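Q: How would the structure tokens look for this protein?
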Amino acid sequence: MSATVRVPTQLRSLTGGVAELQIDGSTVGEVLGKIDAQYPGLGERIFDENGSLRRFVNVFLADEDVRFLEGLETPVKDNQVLSIVPAVAGGAS
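A: Here is the predicted structure in token form.
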């Protein structure tokens, strides 16, 4: 199974400027793990020291936050879109 992974602008320096990646994997965790293997440094921006998603990184599968699905164990169907979205903090001054 192959998923399209959308890489946010802030992380594209780690993918050589590529905005979308085609990655094989049967779960969200497997897909993200393969990205880490292919693009060193990307995994440490997504995962914490325990291998969980970082608190301020959101991952959406077909527009659903994986934290409200099965987390990293969420199954990925062929041709689904996985979006990595860093949380935005701050406000108007």
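Residues 28-38 form the longest helix (11 residues).

The mean pLDDT is 91.

Upvote if useful.
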